[in-house]
């Protein structure tokens, strides 16, 4: 490893003669060390990619993955060490951000947890907190919750504020959901303890779900009132989709207000679609006992899908690469897909026929196999 | 997923069961190559060369694999985004295959 890093450094020094001149060769600056670490990881990733692409069967690919995939968790301690040794250097924050955004392993002594603590201590006001907060919507560690609250209290950059609001709302939504579930099904506590640990479950059992919901509602209200009007349509439509996926009363309220009050067609349309999706998954999650209420919610969701398909057909949901070209996915096509799924693809409905060609160009139909149980598998070799 | 699918198809060879793929790979040639290499004995619809092909778009597929299980009468009985795990998948299919066999017996009488 050291030899590899040395080799990389020599190359870097050659490439940056101006920076290298006033430093002895064997003492790279923190910035150079950071760049060398990045390159080391990028090279390993490239080598892995090449081997992966060369591997022919799924088994071979799996083997390459096991042997060659450069786990970010493995190099994370090096980035962390660099930041710990040079806390005042501007590169420290970049190294810490790298750890938080790449290393997944949590736990008290993990590089990730230590990096979060150091970011909270030294860098909470930085603009770079936006990208850190963006990735903190999942998990159950106290350190990242502290970081999100610290950013909300002390950071003045709008993007960082928005990301902290969204991530905190997402985290609290999970907390509220589990707390509510445990209240209704106390027997499940044991099962949750296996995932989350005893202490966390005990804390959840004491949680007042209504209070958490109120905090979530406040966070989303801030996003809607303070930040949304100034945000670009493209950014706001992304936000709507994320908020819709998180769901919950506060999320629904924000989407409703954006749909009704924002002046931009794209924003209204994506808010309408995202609200419909949030309502649909709420209805799907309701227990048998609430079947009537679920039906009402589902009705509203379908009405909104109809409205999205009708009124906002051309609003841009997002753009993606299709066969080398950027293509807009519209609210209309997604809403139509959702309606088709609700009406024809629910469990218990007769399956719609599929017609097409196989790899040899031979036409066939799903209904050719009536009388047999069919496992229909949407797949791709990637 | 392929090795498990292979063994599932093999195990169910003489039963009223079939696996059908809906494939989003870029070309029919590529699909043919994978079928050969992975020794797939089951058929796949080729869905126009991308994840936004006509079938996947109509069916509102948002992630791969997405799985549907249809019983012998053509009713959708299960759907999953991502594999539910080999055991859940096998058990659900075996149960429906039994239903199909019993249904066929009754009709025979």
Describe this structure in words.
The complex is a heterodimer of chains A (382) and B (109). Chain A contains 18 helices and five strands. Chain A has a two-stranded antiparallel sheet with strand order 1-2. Chain A has a two-stranded antiparallel sheet with strand order 3-4. Chain A starts with a helix and ends with a strand. Chain A is 68% helix and 7% strand. Mean pLDDT of chain A is 90; it is low at 1-20. The radius of gyration of chain A is 25 Å and the shape is globular. Chain A has helices at 2-15, 17-21, 30-54, 58-68, 72-85, 91-102, 111-122, 129-134, 142-154, 158-184, 189-196, 198-206, 209-227, 233-246, 249-261, 265-285, 291-311, 331-344, and strands at residues 316-322, 325-330, 355-357, 363-365, 373-379. The longest helix of chain A has 27 residues, at 158-184. Chain A is mainly alpha-helical and 382 residues long. By secondary structure, chain B is of the alpha+beta class. Chain B contains four helices and four strands. Chain B has helices at 2-11, 28-37, 54-58, 86-108; strands at residues 17-23, 43-46, 66-70, 76-81. In chain B, strands 1-2 form a two-stranded parallel ribbon. A two-stranded antiparallel ribbon of chain B has the order 3-4. Chain B is globular and about 45 Å long. Classes of the chains: A mainly alpha (382), B alpha+beta (109). At the A-B interface, helix 18 and strand 5 of A face helix 1, strand 1, helix 2, strand 2 and helix 3 of B. Strand 5 (373-379) of chain A pairs parallel with strand 1 (17-23) of chain B.
Note the main attributes of this structure.
heterodimer; A: 382 residues; mainly alpha; two-stranded antiparallel ribbon; disordered N terminus; B: alpha+beta; two-stranded parallel sheet
């Amino acid at each position: 490893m050291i030899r590899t890093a040395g080799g990389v450094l020599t190359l870097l020094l050659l490439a940056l003669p101006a920076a290298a001149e006033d430093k002895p060769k064997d003492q790279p600056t923190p910035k150079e060390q950071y760049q060398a670490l990045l390159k080391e990881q990028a090279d390993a990733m490239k080598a892995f990619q090449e081997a992966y692409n060369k591997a022919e069967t799924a088994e071979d690919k799996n083997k390459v993955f096991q042997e060659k995939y450069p786990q970010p968790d493995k190099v994370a301690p090096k980035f962390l060490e660099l930041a710990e040794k040079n806390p005042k250097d501007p590169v420290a924050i970049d190294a810490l951000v790298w750890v938080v955004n790449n290393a997944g392993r949590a736990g008290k002594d993990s590089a990730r947890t230590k990096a979060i603590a150091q970011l909270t201590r030294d860098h909470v006001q930085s603009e770079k907190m936006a990208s850190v907060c963006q990735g903190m919507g999942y998990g159950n560690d106290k350190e990242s919750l502290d970081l999100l609250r610290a950013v909300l209290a002390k950071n003045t950059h709008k993007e960082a504020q928005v990301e902290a609001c969204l991530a905190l709302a997402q985290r609290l939504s999970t907390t509220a959901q589990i707390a509510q579930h445990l209240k209704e099904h106390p027997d499940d506590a044991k099962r949750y303890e296996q995932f989350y640990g005893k202490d966390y479950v005990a804390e959840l059992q004491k949680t007042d779900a209504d209070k958490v919901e109120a905090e979530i509602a406040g966070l989303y209200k801030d996003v809607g009132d303070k930040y949304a009007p100034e945000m670009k349509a493209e950014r706001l439509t992304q936000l709507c989709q994320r908020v819709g996926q998180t769901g919950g009363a506060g999320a629904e309220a924000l989407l409703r207000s954006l749909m009704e009050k924002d002046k931009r067609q794209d924003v209204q349309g994506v808010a309408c679609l995202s609200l419909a999706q949030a309502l649909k998954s709420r209805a799907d999650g309701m227990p048998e006992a609430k079947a009537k209420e679920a039906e009402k919610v589902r009705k509203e969701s379908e009405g909104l899908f109809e409205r999205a398909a009708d009124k906002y057909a051309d609003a841009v949901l997002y753009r993606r690469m299709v066969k080398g070209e950027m293509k807009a996915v519209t609210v209309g096509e997604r809403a139509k897909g959702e309606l088709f799924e609700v009406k024809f693809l629910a469990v218990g409905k007769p399956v719609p026929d599929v017609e097409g060609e196989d790899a040899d160009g031979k036409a066939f139909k799903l209904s050719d196999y009536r009388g047999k149980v069919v496992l229909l598998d949407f797949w791709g070799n990637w | 997923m392929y090795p498990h699918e292979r063994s599932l198809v093999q195990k169910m060879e003489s039963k009223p069961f079939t696996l059908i793929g809906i494939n989003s790979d870029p070309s029919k040639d590529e699909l043919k190559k994978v079928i050969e290499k992975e020794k797939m004995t089951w058929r796949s619809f080729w869905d126009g060369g991308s994840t936004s092909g006509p079938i996947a778009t109509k069916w509102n597929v948002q992630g791969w694999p997405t799985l549907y299980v249809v019983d012998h009468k053509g009713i959708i009985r299960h759907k999953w985004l991502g594999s539910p795990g080999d055991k859940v998948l096998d058990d659900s299919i075996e149960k429906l295959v039994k239903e199909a066999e019993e249904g066929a017996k009754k009709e025979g009488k």
